[in-house]
Design goal:
The complex is a heterodimer of chains A (about 250) and B (about 375). Chain A is an alpha/beta fold. Helices cover about 35% and strands about 25% of the residues of chain A. Chain A has a 6-stranded mixed sheet with strand order 6-7-8-3-9-10, with helices on both faces. Chain A has a 4-stranded antiparallel sheet with strand order 2-1-4-5, covered by helices on one side. The model of chain A is unreliable at about 230-245 (pLDDT under 50). Chain B is built from 16 helices and 12 strands. Classes of the chains: A alpha/beta (about 250), B alpha+beta (about 375). At the A-B interface, helix 2 and helix 3 of A face helix 13, helix 14 and helix 16 of B.
Chain lengths: ~250, ~375
Amino acid sequence: MTAVVLQTVGLVRRIEGVVSHTLVNGIDLSVHKGEFLAITGPSGSGKSSLLYLLGLLDAPTEGEVNICGRSTSNISESERAQLRLTKCGFVFQFHFLLPEFTALENVLLPMRELGRLGAGEMRTKALALLSSLGLAEQAHKRPHQLSGGQRQRVALARALANDPEIIVADEPTGNLDTASTEQVFSLLREIADNGRTVVVVTHDPMLAARADRRIHIVDGKIAEAIVLSDQKPIATAVPAERIIST
Amino acid sequence: MLASLMQGSQIDFIQQLVDTMPHITVTDERKVANVQPAEQQYAAVQLSNSAITEQRRGIKLPYVVMSSIEAWLPGSVTPSVKTTAMINHRGGRFAVTLTGIDPRLEVQVSKLGSQMRKGQVSDLSKASNGVILGEALAQKIGVETGSSILLAGGDAIQITATVVGIFRSGIRQIDESQIYSGINVAQVFVGQTGLVNQLRLRLHDPLIAHEIAAQIEAQTGYKTVSWQEANSDLLSAFAVRSFIMLTVMGAMLLVSSFATYNIISTITYEKRQDIAIMKSLGMKEHRVRTIFIIEAAILGAVGIIFGWGLGFALCNAMSQITIFNPLRGNTVPLQMYYSVMQYIISGLVSIGCCAVAAYFPARKATRVHPVEIIRGAS
């Protein structure tokens, strides 16, 4: 049985204000190593908010997120940033590449921040990453010179730069045409098959169907969890995987 | 530029001031009352109003004192006799300070030689009872070179003197009340031959006058006054002026700091999305902040280079402006003082202000939570 990489216990995210608003309302979830998890749900259901919590971009109001067996409650903002840097890779709906930097420099950015490799090694690795995603020729172009699909692949390369355990993608194909969508999704699938955990938020039921497991979120709660791939025994073993009727 | 102008005029003025007067004056006055033997013996004794035995005026053995000072003095020294006199001329009486000088040594000690408008210092030794008057005084009493004036002293001594020269120091007080004569004339006027009651010194480096004065006072026991001490009011006025200048410059820096603050605020606001991206990738807050502070420092550095160029050009332009200089009695260009230090200091201070002014908006911007911006953008 593969290890649990990402686990949440009673996760709640509430925005306090004049009118309090609960984005995520008590989610228990375990994601295993090498699993491809799709999160679906209508707009405003809190699926993106859940993703930000999973990717440590946001801190939960209640409950906790454990990454690689490590509790992340009560850690400082800079420790949180360090965990993001080493354990999580992000892909957003908008590529969010820095416009002044070339594709290569964008990929180098998280590596430089981590500072684990020498300048030459970082470059070699970034170029290898880009060419593995079919972007060898685009390495020295700036984001505005790239197509949407290419940009998203650069963003993917950047997410992979520090060999994270988890790739978190928020509608990575939301703005792409069918061909590019197919390309990006196959890459994500491949990444998961290579042993990394991938968590994707998507609207597209066809794409969600290609994941190992799909959870459907309504009003911040898991409304439905469907195990799609029985190749991985982990799916049924997840205790948090229970169906909550809304 | 401002500093250059202010320092320029100040240095010019002090130069004139220093040139006009001897750097150190040694007089036969004592700064404290003589210590009585009883006071030396018993701590409780305090004497006041003790009768002063008449002492022979002047510096004892002036030439011995002079040579003992000259042995180590980095400069030159001249003996003189200073006394007060009245000029009786056309029914008017004008109180003046008469200084008897040695014309040969005087030129080494003061700029009197170069301040002469008419006649020469050496003319003092040619004419009997020759005197040199300040220009303002000569105009006031209406005399020219060659005129005779009547000098009256304290001991009912009157001598008739001939004006052999007219000088202009530029300091009105001196020009109006200072007259020079030969040292022997002054000694006769005072009624004590061989009297020297004042030694005037000129140093190679006027800035050490204060220390040298203290040293001479310790050595000879006579009262010494350095030019700094004599002009302490002027020097303190300069200190106030410098302070005002610094305040003005500080205010200007404050204004430019606000400008930097504004610029960096705008830049960070424009880059909010990039900040959010970098933070979401796991960059730490202080690292992102550093980027903006470095950016501000670069902006500052570029500004400094332009500012240096502009400042230098303005200084050059200002030095073309001429104004009337009372010290020289003619119009002269504005005195500018150029110093690399000014540029370095202004540069460092500006960079510092830039970095500080950038820190706050950068801190504010980088504190932003990435989720808020990413959510807003998607």
